[in-house]
Amino acid sequence: MRTLILILFLGYSFSLYSQEEPRIQSIKNQLELLSVDNAGLTETLKLEINVSNVSLSNFLIGISKVHHINMNVDPALSDIAIVNNFSSVTIADLLVFLAKKYQLHIDFTGNILSVSKY
Fold it and tell me: Which CATH topology does 2-117 take?
């Protein structure tokens, strides 16, 4: 019985992982396409960022202002506190990392990015 439960759990875990990768790859592809028209996405962070207990929404809004990216951020993301250290990373890579780490969805409308919980 325990073996059956373990097999079912592992199968479920792998199916969740396999669904996660196409979502992240889709976000990455969309950001690459958008970076042709929006140079802010290919810019490297203008400074080394070491954040501690900053809300995810404030962090994203700050990045969007500095790098001139049109971004709509769901207010629900203000409940997520982040602690990270970033340097020498492009904005697109940073957004992909945050989407993966905090299970975010990025919806693309023209050159507007709308970030919300997945």
Answer: Phage tail protein beta-alpha-beta fold (3.55.50)
Helix or strand (DSSP H, E) at 77 = none
d(CA 79, CA 56): 8
Average pLDDT across each block of 10 residues of the chain; the chain has 118 residues. List them in order. 54 54 93 89 77 89 93 96 88 95 95 95
Q: Which residues of 50-81 are buried (b: 16+ CB within 10 A; e: fewer)?
A: ebeeebbbebbbebbeebebebebeeebeebe
Three-class SS of 5-55: HHHHHHHHHHHHHHHHHHHHHHHHHHHHHHHCCCHHHCCECCCCEEEEEEE
Q: What pTM was estimated for this model as a whole?
A: 0.76
